[in-house]
């Protein structure tokens, strides 16, 4: 997927937006197909959505503003719990920091490993560098997250209608924010227009 300064700025607005897509001005500008992830979470679904947004917002903002030629990116806006559950010196993990992470993040780390067939934890700097507009391995762009039940969330991303796309970085955030199970992605035709 091609990311530009303009597309990242629009993505950042969507990450920060709290209203469902269908209730936003310009909802009819949604792409014709979005990829859906159905996420079962530990605890309150609304709190989960806020945690997930709190991780993605600084990463997307860095995509808009950071100098990705530098050796490391600033992490001061990244939630501490996320930095702790990541591996590597840039994330506070690796030296036992992951044990200070909240239970939902540690459990999500284990669920991510199970879901990916043994995938290890992401290094925080490696994860942040996926938001470099010149990096083409991030095959998705945030579109929306909605509470679909007491412990269920629907996350929608733009994948240009592709059913297979690079999303391990998204899954890392999804699981460490408190997901216990994830289905998807499933490509769905979108229509947020009101029916006459």
Keywords:
single chain; 196 residues; alpha+beta; 4-stranded antiparallel sheet; 6 helices; 34% helix; globular
Describe the structure.
By secondary structure, this protein is an alpha+beta fold. The longest helix is centred in the first third of the chain and has 21 residues, at 45-65. It has a four-stranded antiparallel β-sheet. The chain contains six helices and four strands; from the N terminus they run αβααααββαβ.
| Main sheet makeup | 4 strands, antiparallel
Structural class, by secondary structure, is alpha+beta
Secondary structure tally: strands:
4
Order of strands across the main sheet: 2-3-1-4
Principal-axis shape: globular
Roughly how many Å apart are the termini?
Answer: 34 Å
Average pLDDT level: 86
- Report the total helices: 6
Instruction: Give the helices and strands as they follow along the chain.
Output: HEHHHHEEHE
Give the amount of beta strand, in percent: 15-25%
Uncertain segments are 89-96
Helical coverage, percent range: 25-40%
The rounded Rg comes to 16 Å
Q: What secondary-structure arrangement, pairings included, does this model have?
A:
Blueprint: H1 5-16, E1 33-41, H2 45-65, H3 80-85, H4 103-115, H5 124-129, E2 141-149, E3 152-158, H6 168-176, E4 179-189
Antiparallel strand pairs: 1-3, 1-4, 2-3
In a few lines, what is going on in this structure?
The chain has a four-stranded antiparallel β-sheet. It has helices at residues 5-16, 45-65, 80-85, 103-115, 124-129, 168-176; strands at 33-41, 141-149, 152-158, 179-189. 34% of the residues lie in helices and 18% in strands.
């Amino acid at each position: 997927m091609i990311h530009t300064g303009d597309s990242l700025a629009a993505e950042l607005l969507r990450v920060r937006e709290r209203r469902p897509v269908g209730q936003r001005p310009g909802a009819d500008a949604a792409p014709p197909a979005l990829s859906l992830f159905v996420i079962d979470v530990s605890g309150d679904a609304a709190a989960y959505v806020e945690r997930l947004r709190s991780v993605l917002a600084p990463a997307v903002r860095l995509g808009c503003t950071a100098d990705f030629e530098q050796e490391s990116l600033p992490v001061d806006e990244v939630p501490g719990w996320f930095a702790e559950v990541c591996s590597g010196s840039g994330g506070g993990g690796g030296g036992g920091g992951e044990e200070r992470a909240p239970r939902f993040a540690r459990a999500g780390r284990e669920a991510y490993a199970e879901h990916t067939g043994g995938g290890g934890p992401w290094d925080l700097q490696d994860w942040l560098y996926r938001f470099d507009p010149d990096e083409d391995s991030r095959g998705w762009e945030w579109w929306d997250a909605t509470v679909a039940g007491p412990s269920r969330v629907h996350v929608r991303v733009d994948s240009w209608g592709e059913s297979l796309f690079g999303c391990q970085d998204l899954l890392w955030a999804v699981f460490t924010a408190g997901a216990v199970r994830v289905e998807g992605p499933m490509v769905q035709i979108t229509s947020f227009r009101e029916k006459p």
